[in-house]
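Quick one: structure tokens for this chain, please?
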Amino acid sequence: MIILLPPSETKRDGGDDNAALDLTQLSFPQLTEERKAVSHALIELAGDADAAQRALGISAKQLFEVERNRTLAASPVMPALKRYTGVLFDGLDAASLTPEEWAFAEKSVVVHSALFGPIGAGDPIPAYRLSHNSKVPGLPLKRYWRVPASAALASVEGLQLDFRSEAYAQLGAASADSIYLRVVTEGADGKRVALSHFNKKSKGLFARALIRAGIDHTSIDSLLTWANGAGFRLEHGAPGELDLVVENA
């Protein structure tokens, strides 16, 4: 089973001062050339702060993000799952995982980055800023990543549980054995509505529970049985989707 997560806009500072980005050490090595191209383009863009600010869609108070990109090749690295911050990753709380749980995460969690494509939970990466909708000159990210990222994900056998937003899913399709997770709430009339505010938190908590359980689910039935026994309301939704039903509060 693969738990396929979106990245986050925000990243944790710091890392291993004695190590820098080595693209050949990342998971899915077939993406190395694409990663080189996007990384080089991002570093070059960072040479013009005004152009980078516009391309990244950031404010003047976020110009530190441009500096992060400028020093991308030499900055300290840390495991991807510990680099990303924000609501989903706060709920997952990778720093508190036991060694056994972390080992399971390294085998089972993939984060789909706009910069690196799909990467493993333990892949060492620097802090950076690049989103699915960033405008890198000469590199339209959706068109650039769609085919190679889809092929990389298709190379992984087994069930893929897709937690990504629809925007990040456009950077590359999950495998044919994937199922999309949608967080919904149910009204008194029984109608289900997709959530926005609690979406990321619920996905983070659910991902953490999957990691802590350490079960390599090989089928949707196995996943549904476990989830409902673990206190989650997980049900079939639209074709190709599962609904994680939560309280809107």
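The chain has one domain: 2-245.
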